[in-house]
Design goal:
Among the domains are: 103 residues, Alpha-Beta Complex (Aspartate Aminotransferase, domain 1), CATH 3.90.1150.10; 74 residues, Ornithine Decarboxylase, Chain A, domain 4, CATH 3.90.100. The N and C termini lie far apart (56 Å). The strands form six sheets. It has a seven-stranded mixed sheet, with helices on both faces. Strand 8, helix 10 and strand 9 form a beta-alpha-beta unit. It is of the alpha+beta class. Helix 8 runs parallel beside helix 9 and helix 13 crosses helix 15.
Length: 493
């Protein structure tokens, strides 16, 4: 990929917001939805939240505004521009997040009973897509870095092992880069997967910026992936809840992906969300390499300064020689605080309430900070000063105790079968041996510890309690205090 000028030709427009503005300026009297009638009835709080112009353009389904489900005009053009920018054969705008894009990806490629190879560190949205499709997951094990306490990438050898054990698999689903910025060897994995006639599906939620800097790992689409979901809002400039799904033709059926996306998205999409995707694409076409390159440089300098602080460690390229880790998104700063005698959760609380610094996530050992194209030297200076002060006041202490990861639970029932099966709550402490009827996740990063259909073990229950006592937030179960847990009433014979 060369300079920005290769992207600018034909990209210097934003069809969606232009169409919205044209409708608002046409002066047609509104006898249609939404009920606030282009802001006329908006509450003052809503007026302060959204500009007058934004409210006038917050309409949908007018003839010149196109139809997300059967686009032929401005939406179609906007999606084509996005596909061109990212090197896709087709791109789909998603207004229910990357979770929705992943659901569409799985529902559009898998059939009931299909086997799909999935990394155990996949986001809980993958489980939702598997339940919708009625597929059977077979889990791949990412490398686990014990000192950091986080999963790294998926080694090529692990993918090969999974394929050899399950040659019937329809697809391999990967997460790259991980939440912490670690990228797997996507090109080698794509070649292996395709040589066995399987699809390569990728959750690239944290990689919508990768295409715009050679300092970052190669994006999955360029490495040969068939379908890639990206969270445009997470790293770039669209509104929260907006993402893109990119397709490479040849192995995935475009018409079925389109049908799945239509099935899962609202028939009354918010055009402010759609327009923000178009504008984010325009911004990257105009200045992507400059903006993302600046973020990468800023993050690189900040990483070096953080590593000068006693008791803190921000890993970098030195770890990209471990199995499954071939590249690092350097704009992700994972700062380990355990040598300060703090958990990541404790450090997050101190930074948020005493220093007014909010991280992206905290876990048992680490804090994660995202440096985006919007950050400046001033933001970096404030973050560095806060970390320096935190380290000085804490000093080095007894390191936080190691995490003992449990083995992957036995899959006793297919996730879809377990989702629809009758279940009942039982005391958490005596649930070992039973089949789980719900999902237990610590959020963020939103990776399930146990899924519906998996058998609970004493080891697994101990791990869940340990993470809960360390302060990680439980999501998914009906009883988030975990005094009880839902289990399947009648187990399969």
């Amino acid at each position: 990929m060369s300079g920005d000028k290769t992207f600018i030709a034909g990209q210097q427009k934003a069809p969606l917001p232009e169409a919205m503005q044209a409708y608002a300026e046409d002066g047609a009297l509104a006898f249609h939805t939404p009920g606030h009638k282009q802001g006329l009835g908006a509450h003052p709080l809503l007026r302060r939240l959204i500009t007058e112009q934004g409210l006038r353009q917050e309409v949908s389904l007018m003839e010149e505004l196109d139809d997300l489900h059967e686009p032929t005009m401005c939406i179609q053009e906007a999606q084509q521009l996005a596909a061109e920018l990212y090197g896709a054969d087709a791109s789909f705008f998603m207004i229910n997040g990357t979770s929705g894009a992943i659901h569409a990806m799985l529902l559009g490629t898998l059939c009931p009973g299909d086997t799909v190879l999935v990394p155990r560190n996949a986001h809980r949205s993958i489980l939702g897509g598997i339940i919708l499709a009625g597929a059977r997951p077979v889990y791949l094990q990412p490398e686990f870095h014990r000192e950091l306490g986080i999963p790294m990438g998926i080694p090529l050898a692990e993918v090969a092992r999974g394929i050899a054990a399950h040659p019937e698999a329809r697809a391999v689903f990967l997460v790259s880069p991980t939440y912490y910025g670690v990228a797997s060897d996507m090109a080698a994995i794509a070649e292996l997967v395709h040589s066995h006639g399987m699809l390569l599906l990728v959750d690239e939620a944290h990689g919508p910026h990768l295409r715009f800097s050679e300092r970052l790992p190669m994006q999955a689409l360029d490495a040969g992936a068939d379908l890639v979901a990206q969270s445009t809002h997470k790293i770039l400039g669209s509104l929260t809840q907006t993402s893109m799904l990119h397709l490479r033709r040849g192995r995935a059926a475009e018409d079925r992906i389109r049908a799945a996306a239509s099935l899962l998205q609202s028939t009354s999409p918010n055009y402010l969300l759609l327009a923000s995707l178009d504008i984010a694409r325009l911004q990257m076409a105009e200045r992507g390499r400059e903006l993302v390159g600046r973020a990468a440089e800023l993050a690189g300098r900040l990483r070096c300064r953080i590593n000068e602080i006693p008791g803190l460690w921000c890993f970098g390229q030195e770890l990209m020689v471990t199995p499954g880790a071939v590249g690092l998104d350097c704009t992700k700063l994972t700062v380990q605080v355990r040598k300060l005698g703090l958990s990541g959760i404790e450090a997050e609380y101190i930074l948020r309430h005493e220093y007014k610094i909010q991280c992206e996530l905290s876990d048992a050992y680490n804090l994660l900070f995202i440096i985006s194209y919007a950050d400046t030297e001033e933001q970096a200076r404030r973050l560095l000063a806060a970390l320096q002060s935190l380290a000085r006041r804490q000093g080095t202490g007894r390191p936080v105790a190691d995490i003992q990861l449990p083995v992957v639970p036995e899959l006793a029932m297919e996730p879809r079968e377990a989702f629809f099966a009758a279940s009942r709550p039982v005391p958490f402490a005596v649930s070992a041996g039973r089949i789980c009827g719900e999902t237990i996740t610590f959020y963020p990063p939103g990776i399930p510890v146990v899924c519906p259909g998996e058998r609970l073990s004493a080891e697994l229950l101990g791990y869940i309690r340990d993470m809960q006592q360390r302060g990680l937030r439980v999501t998914g179960p009906e009883d988030v205090s975990l005094q009880t847990i839902k289990v399947i009433e009648e187990e399969p014979s």
